[in-house]
Design brief:
about 150 residues, alpha/beta, Rossmann fold, 5 helices, about 30% helix, about 25% strand, globular
Length: about 150
Amino acid sequence: MKIITKSEEETFMLGKHLGKFLKKPFVVELNGDMAAGKTHLAKGICAFFGVGREFSSPTYAIINKYSCDIYHMDAYRIEDIEEIEYTGLYDIVDEGIVLIEWASLIKEAEFKRDLIINITKKDFDERVIEFYSKSDEGKFVLDKLEKEYGRR
């Protein structure tokens, strides 16, 4: 499935809309170049669950935990796949909703991936957002999202 957004606000709202279909445990991988919109999409998902001012990019913390068992990870600074063990990722993938930015950098890590989102920046505002499911739960979410966005 592919959706095109034309602004940061549209990307945020897509994330907020996507959030209503996510039930824990669920893992969302967010991939794309620097400034592609991964954090805006993650912020929208978190906003659906009521995360407000506490939201921040986990670039240096690696993983932020928000209310409602939402975990937000940034894998950009992971240099060796063995470092994943120390982040606590393997402990949280079965208990909450986990959003992983730069997930392609840890593709060797072994855990269930429900939804893979690849974001491509076309110009200053436009993003092409492609969704792939990796589980039955992910396929359910994509089906719901496709029905909703197909009606617009």
